[in-house]
Amino acid sequence: MTPIISIRDLEKTYSGGFQALKSVSLDINAGEVFALLGPNGAGKTTLISTICGLVQPSSGQVFIGGHDNQTSYRQARRLVGLVPQEMPTVQFEGVRDLVRLSRGLFGLAPDEKLLEEILKDLSLWDKRDAAMKELSGGMKRRVLVAKALIHQPKILFLDEPTAGVDVELRRDMWRIVSRLRDKGVTIILTTHYIEEAEEMADRVGVINNGELILVEEKAALMSKLGRKELMIELSDTLPEIPESLKGYGLELGAEGRSLRYTYDAQGERTGITGLLNALAEAGLRFDDIHTKQSSLEEIFVDLVRAN
Ligand SMILES: Nc1ncnc2c1ncn2[C@@H]1O[C@H](COP(=O)(O)OP(=O)(O)OP(=O)(O)O)[C@@H](O)[C@H]1O
Questions:
Q1: ABC transporter domain: which residues (predicted)?
Q2: Ligand 1 pocket, 164 CB below 6 A?
Q3: One domain for residues 187 and 86
Q4: Quick check: CB of 56 below 6 Å from ligand 1?
Q5: Domain that holds residue 210
Q6: Which value does ipTM take for this structure?
Q7: Substitution site in 14, 19, 54, 189 for ligand 1 pocket (most atoms within 8 Å of beta carbon)
Q8: Which of 204, 223, 242 is the last residue of a domain?
């Protein structure tokens, strides 16, 4: 399948000399939901702003639907809707007028039926004549989504769509994204929230210090998430792992007082029963056992720390 977005060796050094993107290459497939995860300042906004053509790269290329976003900016931009992080600063304009205007910016004829459909879809219809200053933060965010969708883009970028919103709006946003995905819109979102990536994404990319350090199917990440640890606190010091237990991949803890067994929590067999029998046969006694699940959060933190 030809990717709908193709990013090649993208680099960005800001005028002050700070390098915010380091040789980022990535393909996005049509119809997928791609979540870009990364800590503050990792380069998420820079990356999506560069893809959308709002920030000029220092080097590298971006193709959107086959159009180079620098040499064929208008054709490339036409395919893209962007929901920015910042809230709109306009105060007095009405919701419907603002959204209508966004379509006009692409040189497209007004489409009142579509406008109504989008406002209804986003639960903004009742507020269609309200001025922006009358809206709650959550409602303003919906207006941003409406503005990004009114020229019927094939690709939607959402920059931190749920930062600072309440749980209810977060769930609503997730529903909105899922409906758009059903309509075949490709979605790229940036987020701090691992939970959000878990909920929505088909694939996850992790960016840190301007480098894309991992791109993986969510399912594969989830199976990593499924790794669990069983900690066995031994009653007596164990100088080394006995021969009969070598097949279990155990790690001996500090001072030989604990054993760590890692297993796949989503696998059919955990091997725990066999291990406990083998421990008994080897004459090992233990004071306590407990399990610990490595979360995607931990995987993410480890990844970021290691890079
Ligand atoms: N216009 C600019 N001039 C100079 N440096 C910039 C500019 N914009 C961003 N940066 C720097 O580039 C780095 C990446 O910023 P960016 O906004 O892309 O990160 P982010 O991952 O989106 O972070 P956040 O989650 O906090 O929004 C940061 O260190 C930031 O200070």
A1: 5-234
A2: no
A3: yes
A4: no
A5: 5-223
A6: 0.94
A7: 14
A8: 223
Distance 21 CA to ligand 1 centre (A): 10
Q: Which of 201, 223, 245 is the last residue of a domain?
A: 223
* N- to C-terminal Cα separation, the chain: 31
* Co-location of 20 and 138 in the same domain: yes
Strand arrangement, sheet containing 59-64:
19-28, 5-13, 59-64, 67-68
Q: How far is the CA of 286 from the centre of ligand 1 (A)?
A: 51
Give the C-alpha separation, 69 to 48, whole Å.
12
Asked if pLDDT for residue 154 goes beyond 90, the answer is yes
Tokens of 39: 């800590």
Is the shortest distance between the CB of 177 and ligand 1 below 6 Å? no
| pLDDT above 90 as % of the chain | 63
Give the strand order in the sheet containing 227-234.
251-252, 258-264, 227-234, 286-293
CA–CA separation, 99 and 101 (whole Å): 5
69 lines ligand 1 (CB under 6 A): no
Mutate to test the pocket of ligand 1, among 22, 36, 45, 208 (most ligand atoms within 8 A of CB): 45
Q: How many domains does the chain have?
A: 2
Look up the CATH number of the domain holding residue 271.
3.30.70.100
